[in-house]
Task: structure prediction
Amino acid sequence: MSFLFDRVRLSIMKRKQLIITFSLIVFGGTQVVTADERAESSRGFKNWDKNGDGFLIPSEVPDGPRENFNNVDRNKDGKVTLEEHLLATVGSEDPKKRKVRKPDSNQYKRHVIRQTWDQEKQGYDREYYVSAPEKTKSEIPVLFVFHGGGGKASNMIRGWSRRFSDYLVVSPQGYKGGWNISAEATKAPDTDFFKEIVKDLKVKYPKANLSGVSMVGFSNGAGYIFRLLIEIDDENLIKRVVPMVSSMEEGQYHDGSFWQRSNDKNGNYDVKKKPITKSSILSVHGTEDRVVPYLGGKRGRNAIHLSAQDTAFYWAQQKGFKGKKIADKDGKQISRDIISYSYKKADVTHIKVVGGGHGLGPKGEKVNPMINDFIRTGKIKRSY
Result:
């Protein structure tokens, strides 16, 4: 099933035929399709979503269909969700034929944390999904996965629960599709949200090992990881993290120090903070990222990022590294177009994906085994 192709039912000929058209998007047409057609289109989406973050960006889409990306991106946020993809490829779904996976299935459990803040003064149920191993005899390792801006927790957990089926995989949902880092629409108390999830997991999943959880975050979700590393005071809670396709923002690190906010509403990083030091860090970033520039600089209207390599170096310093920053030319090639900058004694490694965009694209497949190894063992190999 090709992305952005409209499947049209030709009732006169009593058969289905794929045609290259965008009548659904441009003219607002609707159609009825079978559950099998929707499943086929969903598989096509997942095949292109190489990093499993629950949405597509232009670099993940082949050249031909990419020309119509902006038409399918209905809310113009630079990403295509599964829902937008399905609307473009198979159109509206017949409610009578719809196969809906219940949120509380045997595989994925949906839980909520009630929070109140300025945007939700009457209270708001914030959700997170959990996938637990079917059978376990001992403690279960825990992996948190954080979607990027505009992403969905329910999409994230599907891919990562398959990769880590022996883990308790936890996928929280950001308010308004994002995490409160800088210029996002959300002003939600996200650090408190994470703390409340941990408390909830202790009760609902007593076998979960919450003394050293792992984390993977994409883009805005990576920014959330950096925020948690800075703000969480339990140095034994977070064991390993993989922030992908985002660096720290200047607000989070400036004047030789890390910073947090005095409150979530004003967005100012105005309180100096010494982060926890026991977490191992594996950051991943592509050199051709046009959303969060690899070399640092402006993102969107207001956010300014540090470079990917500076971000790794500052964390290494925080964790006790006393030497100089590794020069760009001194990185170690561990696979074609994959360069490693490792501050071994500080347990901080940066992976540069040469030519990789914001979604890393096909080159992201080379990174997947590195992430798997790091989450499971805390180490990556010398070559892949």
Q: What stands out?
A: The two ends are 31 Å apart (CA to CA). Confidence is low (pLDDT under 50) at residues 1-34, 95-104.
